[in-house]
Design goal:
97 residues, 2 domains, 4 helices
Length: 97
């Protein structure tokens, strides 16, 4: 009989993945990398709409653009993990025995 690895992993097949651990690590990664909150961007957009000075409008637009690009660079969760988590929640339970 071939040796078999025991335990969970944060990547790989859905049967071996630890969804709770993966989600916890994704949250920690977002916090550590200072991923901007969407509410902060919305507040800047509201401030941009109220702004009348061209200089401040340009500065606000540059800040909004920088924050939006940072959001695209730092994913909420890894794409492979999100597909696995969605498949597990749609089944309602895992198939482990």
């Amino acid at each position: 009989m071939a040796p078999r690895r025991a335990g969970y992993t944060v990547s790989g097949s859905p049967a071996n993945i630890a969804v709770n651990r993966t989600m916890r690590l994704a949250l920690q990664r977002r916090v550590a990398l200072h991923r901007p909150r969407p509410e902060a961007i919305e507040a800047l957009k509201a401030e941009l709409a109220e702004s009348e000075d061209d200089e401040s409008r340009d500065a606000l637009q540059a800040k909004i653009t920088a924050l939006e690009s940072k959001i695209r660079r730092i994913p909420y969760i890894d794409r492979s993990t999100s597909a696995i988590a969605a498949s597990r929640t749609s089944r309602g339970r895992s198939r482990r025995r």
